[in-house]
Design brief:
- The structure is a single chain.
- The protein has ten helices and seven strands.
- Helix 4 links the parallel strand 2 and strand 3.
- The chain has a domain of 177 residues: 3-Layer(aba) Sandwich (Rossmann fold), CATH 3.40.50.
- The chain is α/β, with parallel strands linked by helices.
């Protein structure tokens, strides 16, 4: 069964990425840095990592270099080939990448790693498969102590769009290949016995890049993201509204 919402989109993206030899999985150059750095700060040298939906391992090399062992899983064969080449080029001998469906991998294998990571894997599943992934995970014989998910969230996007409307900006819409998570999904996770032990938002970055960065200001699109990145890292100011529609949740069973 094909659980992905729009597998064809990622197959085409992988082919283009292979041809152009540059990452095409994210249109925002600096947000993945923030996300990966946040994930990395919550990993230990002794961790054994399973990453579901690893893609071409564009964000994963720092995790692999830090951890004891790493298994990446992705259904797109071109991404897997790119990931294997990255691992080989970096002479990393603690990593394996497997070409298979992520949900099927969970259903068919015991989890022998203590950390599971997803970065926009869950939102690429069909709605009925999103919660099924976590239900299947609960059934497995597992060594998991942490689950780190970096995904898109609907309520935060709605709040961002509310502020964009006040600023006279167009609404940001969810891409057709994504199913953003919402409060109902989180409630269902909690009912399954998962605990949210940490939430990492990037509100400053989103405020500067998605609201402040508009035609009313003289800065170019290229000027703004690196400034926003530094402001977010320094936590230069506080922002009460939760507009971080991409955020990280750290879960425990």
């Amino acid at each position: 069964m094909d659980y992905s919402k729009l597998k064809s989109h990622w197959e085409e993206t992988a082919k283009k990425q292979s041809e152009l030899k540059k990452s095409l999985t994210h249109s925002d150059q600096y947000l993945p840095f923030l996300e990966s750095e946040a994930i990395l700060s919550n990993l230990k040298e002794t961790d054994e990592i399973l990453e579901i939906g690893c893609g071409a391992c564009d964000n994963s090399l720092p995790y692999i270099k830090k951890c004891k062992s790493y298994i990446g899983v992705d259904v797109i064969d071109t991404f897997v080939d790119l990931a294997k080449k990255k691992i080989s080029d970096n002479k990393l001998n603690n990593a394996t990448v497997i070409n298979t469906d992520g949900l099927e991998y969970i259903q068919e294998n015991d989890i022998l790693q203590n950390v599971l990571i997803t970065q926009r894997f869950i939102i690429n599943l069909k709605k009925e498969a999103q919660l099924l992934f976590f239900k299947e995970l609960r059934k497995k014989k597992s060594k998991l102590t942490r689950i780190i998910i970096c995904e898109g969230f609907n309520e935060e996007l709605l709040e961002l769009n509310r502020l964009r409307k006040i600023a006279g900006l167009d609404e940001i819409k969810v891409a057709e290949y994504n199913n953003f998570l919402d409060k109902h999904f989180i409630d269902e996770l909690l009912k399954l016995g998962y605990k949210i032990v940490k939430e990492i938002n990037f509100n400053i970055y989103f405020f500067i890049t998605r609201i402040f960065n508009n035609k009313s200001f003289v800065f170019s699109t290229e000027d703004i993201p690196p400034v926003a990145y530094e402001f977010e890292k320094m936590k230069l100011f506080t922002f009460d509204n939760n507009i971080s529609y991409s955020k990280i949740l750290i879960l425990e069973l």
